[in-house]
Amino acid sequence: MDLKSTNASPVLTDPVPINKPRLGIHSSLLPFSQSGASFSSGLLMTPRKKPGKLDDVRSNGWLDAMISSSPPRKKMLKDFNVEVASNDSDIAYNSWMVKHPSALNSFEQIISRARNKKIVMFLDYDGTLSPIVDDPDRAFMSDEMRSAVRNLAKHIPTAIISGRSRDKVYELVGLTELYYAGSHGMDIMCPVRGAESVDPSSCIKTTDHQPAREFLTMIDEVFRTLVENTKDVKGAKVENHKFCASVHYRNVDEKNWPTIAQCVHDVLDGYPRLRLTHGRKVLEVRPVINWNKGKAVEFLLDSLGLSSSDDVIPVYIGDDKTDEDAFKVLREGYQGYGILVSSVPKETKALFSLKDPSEKAKLRFIVCSTRPTLNFTPQRSFPQIRASSGFSASLDAAIASSFLTQSFFDDFERFPPTAATVSSSLLLGICSLPDTTFRSAVDTALADSHCYGLESSDLRMSCFADKALVNVGGDLAKMVPGRVSTEVDARLAYDTHGIVRKVHALLALYNEIGISPERLLFKIPSTWQGIEASSLLEAEGIQTHMTFVYSFCQAAAAAQAGASVIQIFVGRIRDWARNHSGDPEIEAALKRGDDPGVALVTKAYNYIHKYGYKSKLMAAAVRNKQDIFNLLGVDYIITPLKILQSLKESVTPPDDKYSFTRRLSPQSAATYNFSNEELVKWDQYSFASAMGPAAVELLTAGLDSYANQAKRVEELFGKIWPPPNV
């Protein structure tokens, strides 16, 4: 499909004002007259300019919108089609508050209506849970705010709906008790409701909802173009939020705003399926679909089984223009409360306001919301978004990483995993224990009629192996809240198109059993050919998991390819270093006094976060608690049961060497320095030249082991086929 066009891209403008608000609440609760508020005749009235048609950035209203979304410090009161400026800011604000009274002052009124009803809380992140700062990567929640939100989530369902990517906002918040919606609601993880069984395993199902998934490649292309086109504009910052791209001009000199606007306009001109929206000193490029934060609120309420309930009151707190869609939904459809955080009067569909944009007022409201009269206990079929591994409260509060238990044969009940991998090794384990939960999945695969009809014995056994991987993977997808990674035959490690064909075949088998691509990763060896395959698959929207990463060039090339997950084996690198020498990368780490495995994870994490790659980093082969604490902040850690048990049982004093200090963070990544040689665009030649002896030996050993396991599975299937029921 040709996505290029010379037609102008649509621009999302302010909604047409309405003179009589349509309120979905009881008239006794209206804080202002239905006929509208009257304002002081002494105020200076200045006509508001309407946005024009897109011809260029000066005549199409873009600059006007940029200026209006970045108001000066003086108070502005905007009423319907005019803007009102006043030297007496109190008069202006008090007039505005007739329509939008203080949420704190009205709290008893809210409680009165909420008694015996179910409260669901929705929160924006930037400007609501965190302050607005010049550098978006430094918009951190305070410890007090995080504690208040955690406590709130203990009492009522709490969701964060942000313009940031879902993974980014989760990284910043670090609370497992919440529901998350990123990219203005276009990337949602939420419970699957309707489970009738009381079995605990049925209560940890989750699903991703990504209505704009088809635009992933397009957004990534636009992001890269915007980065290139704005690189010479001082202060400009471009972010990839997965389903939308943002150009921040907060730190750009105002005289250069037309340049920013023109850059975005020129890029959008070639993408008729994308549109522009304005935020607070940010231009955002989004897909042209009927989806926004309001739709996300509706979807989450439906997922909680509350969309048609008469005894639910949703509350949404936000500060940005993009939150208006949510305010509108609550006001018109759900009889809920929108609360605008703003010290400046502005047109809004929020019912209430918080005048003080500082943390104090927001904290007071959130803390008040945990009062017992507002408590709501979800049904058992409403799971947490990520499974907890049962750590002590102090450790859980300190760690933003997701812990993945190592084996389903360890202890599922005590340490339920958050994600899973299905591999030839797992199939061998299942077949060696006939009474395992997954044996029926293998037997069903061996009875597959399509595989049975293949003439060649080798093709037949390979088909059975693929079917068994998928059947077991499908069962695992029902047991874990996260994604299931499926091993791709290591014998294809040096065949780019062979890997792609194998992934397509596995994906088709998953589709037959109803497992959506959003729940899947495909585990590919990090040879150069494997990384090329990852790039091709990710361009199709298929998520890849790069394994056997033992050097920085592998990690960097995989990140440049857009791999979803990059896995580094910490302990294996350390083991090699103890018994070998001569690897420059490892020697440099040892000279600094660093563990070489931890050093590689740190360097890869900093590279990914400093340069805005979408990849998530996974640490594997951790050997002890110290490894865990040295890796605090990494996205995922595969953790053996014995370490989880040790962490659960230990009580660590603050001055212990196993401290809770987060070692990896976006802010530390921003200050990390890379050499020019490390910042190249990796190709096959530079990749091969940079692979040190440790990476070559460990990669070869891993491939040999995986290939041998795949061969053993096929040989075993040849011995036990056909199963008893065939």
UniProtKB/TrEMBL annotation:
UniProt-listed GO biological process terms: pentose-phosphate shunt; trehalose biosynthetic process
Cofactor(s) in the UniProt record: a divalent metal cation
Keywords for the protein's UniProt record, in alphabetical order: Cytoplasm, Hydrolase, Pentose shunt, Schiff base, Stress response
GO cellular component, one term: cytoplasm
Highest taxon in the source lineage: Eukaryota
Pfam families given in the database record: TAL_FSA, Trehalose_PPase
Entry annotated with the keyword NAD: no
GO molecular function, one term: transaldolase activity
Catalytic reaction(s) noted: alpha,alpha-trehalose 6-phosphate + H2O = alpha,alpha-trehalose + phosphate
Function (record text): Removes the phosphate from trehalose 6-phosphate to produce free trehalose. Trehalose accumulation in plant may improve abiotic stress tolerance.
Family: Belongs to the transaldolase family. Type 1 subfamily.
Protein name per the record: Trehalose 6-phosphate phosphatase
Organism: Actinidia rufa
Phylogenetic lineage: Eukaryota, Viridiplantae, Streptophyta, Embryophyta, Tracheophyta
